[in-house]
Amino acid sequence: MYYLLLTLSFLLFGVGFLCNDRYTKVAGSDTVSTVVFLILSNLAGVLVMLVINRFHVEFTLFTLLSAAVASLNFILYTFFTLKSLTHINLSLYSVFAMLGGMMLPFLVGLIFYHETLTLGKGVCVILIIAALALTVKRDGQRGGTVYYIGVFVCNGMSGVLTKLFLEAPYKKTSAESYSIWIALITLAAALCALPFLRKKLQKLGAKAVLWSVGCGGAGRIGNYLLVLALAVLPASVQYPFVTGGTIIVSTLLGYAVGQRPSRRELLAVALSFVGVLLLSLI
């Protein structure tokens, strides 16, 4: 049951990556485009989660504080993403993002929550690191080390913060309300920045709105499913599984936008598939 939730989650993340890629193609990736994207995507995320939760929003002070920290982490992640992509190619950026998203929750689960290190987990992590390494395309660009270290840390902290929220011995809301509060706080922060940028705003086309809304909806549901699964599955199982699955889905979706995978990328998909399979079976 919970592996099905994880599978649906990385399928949605793959769709979100595709929507994000399409948005940058039609709207760009400067500060104004990013703020507008945050507004539209989080507005869509709030509406989707309200429907899922039947327009019911719970509140506790701990949930609000946790959501605020998670929202700040997400905003920083977006900032580091934009800056890092001016120094390194998308392939290398993806390696930092996905390694951070897998390794930090994996290590936190093992070290602080005493999750068991099994043969399947170890082999899966090694295979996925190898798969990510295969996707790197060296382009000779240098500089910006602090930015892609920021990508690594912030993407990893997203999973760590979710784990901390679920395990903390304080009064908290449901996973649905936690997701709603994160989206609401991020939306509010982006709206606060909008007045300072309005002179630079350009009219967005229907495609830009569509892609940002699609990304927000898919991403918010995907993260919500991760929270549900993390309540039962160890972080050291969940995040390698999702990372491997996301590699597979993202590569396959490349065909949808005319980006034919290279042999190295196809080999990375194969390694990821084997890693996820071993994680599920051993």
Question: Could you provide a short overview of the structure?
Answer:
The chain has 282 residues and is mainly α. Helix content is 77%, strand content 0%.
List the helices and strands and how they pair.
Blueprint: H1 2-27, H2 31-52, H3 61-84, H4 90-112, H5 119-134, H6 145-167, H7 175-193, H8 206-230, H9 235-253, H10 263-281
> How far apart, in Å, are the first and last alpha carbons?
17 Å
Number of strands: 0
- Which ranges are low-confidence, i.e. pLDDT below 50, for 5 or more consecutive residues? none
User: Would you tell me the overall average pLDDT?
Assistant: 81
Helical proportion, percent range:
over 70%
Reported for the largest beta sheet, the result is: none
Overall 3D shape: globular
Q: Strand portion, in percent?
A: under 5%
H-E order: HHHHHHHHHH
Radius of gyration from the alpha-carbon trace, in angstroms: 18 Å
Class from helix and strand fractions: mainly alpha
* Helical segment count: 10
